[in-house]
TrEMBL record:
Protein name: UPF0295 protein SAMN05216498_0384
Transmembrane segment boundaries: 12-33, 39-61
Source species: Tenuibacillus multivorans
Entry GO CC: plasma membrane
Bilayer topology: Multi-pass membrane protein
Stored InterPro entries: UPF0295 (IPR020912)
Keyword Transmembrane recorded: yes
Location(s), subcellular: Cell membrane
Length: 125
């Protein structure tokens, strides 16, 4: 069984990085249209938005990182950060949980949703 899941902080970081590249490519395409000034300005503007957005995302990751709990991965013994109730190791993608009740259970992203836990509470009552 292949696990498609990856560490949340790493995932967001990848998005931010690809946005920077996208922004640069968009700006580069704009340069190809330097004979049509408005097209070039439009592309430059879009490129700037993409780069600005990635800066915002990087800032957001910084805030998330401070909230994430640092643990040592039992699988590869490297320090990693867990965000939410379940997350994957940054290095080996080993699923990790902070909830003892979930230990040994099959990894599922639903454990991070508030809705799932509300429904669980209802069935326990
Ligand atoms: Zn690991």
């Amino acid at each position: 069984m292949s696990l498609k899941y990856s560490n949340k902080i790493n995932k967001i970081r990848t998005i931010a990085l690809s946005l920077i590249f996208a922004g640069m490519i968009i700006m580069y395409i704009g340069l190809l249209f330097k004979n049509y000034e408005w097209v070039m300005v439009l592309f430059m503007f879009l490129g700037l938005i993409a780069i600005a957005l990635s800066t915002v995302i990087y800032f957001w990751i910084g805030m998330l990182s401070t909230r994430a709990i640092q643990v040592v991965c039992p699988e590869c013994e490297k320090p990693t950060k867990v965000l939410g109730r379940v997350d994957a190791c940054m290095h080996c993608k080993q699923p990790l949980t902070l909830d003892r009740n979930l230990e040994g259970k099959e990894f599922d992203e639903k454990y991070n949703s508030k809705k799932y836990w509300k429904e669980q509470e209802k069935t326990n009552d």
